[in-house]
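dumping the sequnces here before i forget
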Amino acid sequence: MRFSEIVERLGAASASSLETHPERDPEVGGMSAIEQPVAGTLSYIESRKYREFIDSTIAQGLILPMDREMQERAAARGLVWIGSCNPRLAFAEAIALFYKPIQPERGIHPTAIIHPSTKLGKEVSIGAYAVIQEDVVLGDGVCVHPLVVVYPQVAIGDRTILYAQCVIHERTQIGQDCVIHSGATIGSEGFGFVPRGDGTWFKMEQSGYTVLEDEVEIGCNTAVDRPAVGETRIGARTKIDNGVQIGHDVKVGADCILPAHIGMAGGAKIEDQVVLGGRTVVSNRVVVGRGTRATIGSLLISDTEPGSIVSGYPAMPHQSWLRSSALVRRLPEMQQTMKQMQKQIDTLQAELARLQGQQGQERGDEV
Amino acid sequence: MRFSEIVERLGAASASSLETHPERDPEVGGMSAIEQPVAGTLSYIESRKYREFIDSTIAQGLILPMDREMQERAAARGLVWIGSCNPRLAFAEAIALFYKPIQPERGIHPTAIIHPSTKLGKEVSIGAYAVIQEDVVLGDGVCVHPLVVVYPQVAIGDRTILYAQCVIHERTQIGQDCVIHSGATIGSEGFGFVPRGDGTWFKMEQSGYTVLEDEVEIGCNTAVDRPAVGETRIGARTKIDNGVQIGHDVKVGADCILPAHIGMAGGAKIEDQVVLGGRTVVSNRVVVGRGTRATIGSLLISDTEPGSIVSGYPAMPHQSWLRSSALVRRLPEMQQTMKQMQKQIDTLQAELARLQGQQGQERGDEV
Amino acid sequence: MRFSEIVERLGAASASSLETHPERDPEVGGMSAIEQPVAGTLSYIESRKYREFIDSTIAQGLILPMDREMQERAAARGLVWIGSCNPRLAFAEAIALFYKPIQPERGIHPTAIIHPSTKLGKEVSIGAYAVIQEDVVLGDGVCVHPLVVVYPQVAIGDRTILYAQCVIHERTQIGQDCVIHSGATIGSEGFGFVPRGDGTWFKMEQSGYTVLEDEVEIGCNTAVDRPAVGETRIGARTKIDNGVQIGHDVKVGADCILPAHIGMAGGAKIEDQVVLGGRTVVSNRVVVGRGTRATIGSLLISDTEPGSIVSGYPAMPHQSWLRSSALVRRLPEMQQTMKQMQKQIDTLQAELARLQGQQGQERGDEV
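..and the predicted 3d for all of it:
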């Protein structure tokens, strides 16, 4: 693809080297990372912090921030460049221009076992050895990869993709344009056991169901459980990574980003546009306010304010955590300081006592 | 189902509105959560903390604690109610009255591949594309869902359910009435590598096996490894949630509750009736004493006393953790206090020196 | 197997009871753990710490450290023994003498679906209901267990084993003698979403691929993602346990040991011979220096020095962590000490003021 075509097709591009060097319009073979540049490709630099890469890259061009100095530096090396207010987004858009995802075979594989009650939309693909049980609805263009199991009474919206080995449990409702990655389990039984009082546990049947709204992604080996009654719900456009646990009765809002190994205990409520660091834990019934950000590995045992940034285990406001965690490291030093202070106090006490004694004596002398 | 029938069938019910209002005996359509009440259903309230819900619920009845005020408040709104010393247990029992779990097709699916050496009990169900290898014993009423793999020399007790995509590795022994959820792996190889001393690792063969006693549940994508020699064992009636790791040679006692994302390193020993919070880690060979409780996200690197409650990362007695973790947040304040104390000490020293100097001078004067 | 044969075949054995008691050469039935000894077997004792077991074991022999006292104590009880500088390694070697792993059926199962473009090496085994898609290369002796899915353009080296239910995604390259355990997912899409700036997220296509070098092991339900561009790479002989997350663009070196539930965020770099404790998290782009060791449950948010030992959440040098974490427990005590110091200071100030007042008065008197 010609460089000029990329520039034209990138929505996020605001400027390019074509303005000053229209004659530089090479064929571009693809995209590459700035740390692993490949000749004949475009790479990208997020910010001035990485600008040294401009001088050494073997890529033939760069997506750059709107920074004239960086752009001139690239041009001086004969590189083509695209300027963007969001270079990472422009890079992602450019990858999409080149990338041709693997297309599974169209149609229904003869080994797929599909219950006669299944309602199939148009142009559905179902892979080898997939098993679709009774009363399932698959929308138009749904793509079921090999070895997937769909339990009864599931509805799956148009164009949703179920990758290999995932399991969709009974009564689950999945919206349009969702992606369920390999090995994920949606709508499995919540973990509900009630103490009988004699040290044993009574299983609470999980009669509820799970809902994924439109454009949700669920990562590999992630589980989204269904509750005893009512629903577990993941809001529209929320993206969930691998190995995540979404407990029964959790409500996740729209446009959230939940990286790998996050765990949400039963009844947690995550409002819209929450972005958590990987490995974060949210405790039972905790409400994570709209737009909250948590850094990697946080433990949220109490509600967070909308728009807050939290860190720590347990979590606290990020600024407090920065100070507290720095001081945890300095506790041995603080202890040392305290010991010295105690010595100083002891010395002061001794000297004061001596002084008082002297004064008493002097006064006694005077008497 | 009539309200009066529910009252009659609930073992845990101690009282009900039928005593004072026998004429109120509506048809009940099911159960619902107090935060998501559904008209025509019963809901439940665990404790006085949630009693405000009585005034606004659209449910037609409530399971309540043995609290006369709450019961009268419900009756005053025309609601039917059931009183119980354990409302949550009564709620769970009531759900079970209504819930009809999905029943897999009976019998052996023609696509299931079953080694001729398999010993099948009565009324065994085996789903599509399940694979049962040699020398496996399946007890009466065992239910193997689609796409399950059972490796050789496995024994599975009566009425145990294996959900879709789970894998039972060689030599595993599973008791009666167990439930293995989708994607779980039982009896997989323990992680055993011995340093050779030259920076490389020798694989220790995992020749042992895994035992699940009766009525054990194992969650989705959980792994229970087998050891190099001997056995990994999960005690009767212990319930394990999703994404848990049980390392080689771990012994878990009876009636334990182990929520999602718990990890147990090799050789850990969990005694009976232990209840851990989700995401807890137990280090190698640590012994968790009978009845220990750990709060969410704890790290147990040393043994716990029977009956203890622990928290923290690493864990300590819960009461200590409450104090310590509150003080971690207040470290910046403590540091500030120390600085002020240091200033006060410095001032005291200076003033004392001045005083000593004056006194010396005065005495000098006197001399 | 005769005891003498075991002694002969153990590379790590340096001495044995045959030297002093050649007549004691029993038939050995297998190996057992020292805490669960089995009659007729050999067990092992790692160090003097466990030497009391010598006096009570029902095993007929022991692998012991090079410790004359322990060896004589065993001989005095009539036990046979093998002395080794690395008893654990000798034990592992001895297990391998006895253990006969389950052998999957040879050949291609008739239900396996293999795309005609597949290049098969010699003596490949492919189990029931496995699905191999287009343009896949399987080396000599590759063993694919039942219900495995291999996506297009994957290459798998000689003798590599793929256990049941694992999924190998498009373009993945797996070396020779690797082991992929049940339910693992290799080469799945990295988690890449770029903020558009309006609260929504643009999916970055993951056009890269994943490489596992020779002799890598990947545990059950572990995921190794592929990146947007370039590669995710696991170095030769590195062993990864269950439930681990390796994010997109991560580079792991050779001979690393990564136990269960470890998580590595995008772009992390783990150098050779790193040994992390289970449940450790490595943050985005962090570089873990060659030979670093981290204790269980650490959080690495900054680079580590080669050869360092780190602990904590977030991690710090292990020695600092020992001191700091001990002091965290003692914070209530430190706070108490501070309060007492403050009282002492207050008293000192009061007494000093009184003294100054007296002195002023006295001097005033004198005037």
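Residues 72 and 296 of chain A are 37 Å apart (CA to CA).
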